[in-house]
Write a structure and sequence with these properties.
The protein has 9 helices and 10 strands. By secondary structure, it is α/β, with parallel strands linked by helices. Helix 3 (92-106) runs parallel beside helix 4 (125-138) and helix 7 (205-213) packs parallel to helix 9 (231-246).
Length: 257
């Protein structure tokens, strides 16, 4: 049994996932099935519909309107690390605004932060580092986990502003191409913070590649829906790979719950 990823005072499993994309919309049964099959303790809360109206139902898992509170009625979420998932924003200003709204509404302090290019396929690294800096200055207790392209200088910049973990893309979102520049990814994994491969995962072999390159964990999402099999079945394969290459850790034994 391996240690969990420790970030500040928060302990995270090495296997993370989301609940679909704008093209892949997961209903409540699928969201609950994925959560139980994965064993993760990471629970992202999407904010792409959140605005100044502060509607609680704009906090959801995935893209099919499955509300944060709705999942809590089906699954005991008390042991999960809830992450404010600042997703689909394309500027630092937008990302910071929405993150502050979500923090105020939920009280959560772990921020899964992204600022994307207009095609929503890659990171605007300068903008996400700027957003991270502003959020940490606003509230130093926040644990800001930025999504970055596979760029070592951007990664160093995120560490310099106080990000305690980096989510680094191996290839473009949805590309399913794995880590295209292994040398740079390895170099980034040598920085003094954990790195999670987040972006471009397409096969269970990419889990092995991430571990071999020095990553502390991995996130899967669109591949669960692009495979052609039921997403929960694909999740079970990725969980097995994560257990094999990152160790079991303390994944929750909830597949039969």
């Amino acid at each position: 049994m391996t240690e969990l990823i420790t970030v500040a005072d928060v302990r995270l499993t090495s296997f993370w996932h989301c609940f679909g994309t704008e093209r892949h919309r997961a209903d409540l049964d699928t969201v609950v099935g994925l959560l139980r099959a994965s064993g993760t303790n990471v629970l992202p809360i999407n904010t792409h519909r959140l605005d100044e109206s502060r509607r609680r139902d704009a906090l959801e898992h995935g893209f099919a309107g499955v509300g944060y509170d709705e999942v809590g009625e089906r699954v005991d979420v008390s042991a999960y690390v809830k992450m404010v998932n600042v997703n689909l924003r394309t500027s630092a200003d937008e990302a910071v605004r929405v993150a502050k709204l979500a923090v105020d509404m939920t009280g959560e302090r772990v921020i899964k932060l992204e600022v994307l290019t207009p095609d929503l396929r890659s990171s605007r690294d300068d903008e996400v580092v700027e957003a991270a800096r502003r959020l940490i200055e606003w509230d130093p207790s926040l644990i800001v986990l930025p999504l970055l392209s596979n760029d070592h200088e951007a990664a160093r910049g995120a560490v310099d502003v106080g990000c305690p973990l980096l989510r680094v893309m191996g290839s473009a979102i949805g590309a399913r191409a794995g880590i295209l520049d292994t040398a740079t990814f390895v170099k980034t994994c040598e920085l003094p913070v954990p790195v999670v491969l987040d972006g471009g995962v397409g096969t269970v072999d990419h889990v092995r590649d991430a571990a071999a390159a020095g990553a502390a964990g991995i996130l899967v999402n669109s591949v669960l829906f692009d495979d052609g099999r039921p997403p929960v079945t694909v999740m079970e394969d990725f969980r097995e790979a994560a257990e094999s290459h990152f160790g079991v850790g303390e994944l929750q034994d909830s597949r039969t719950a």
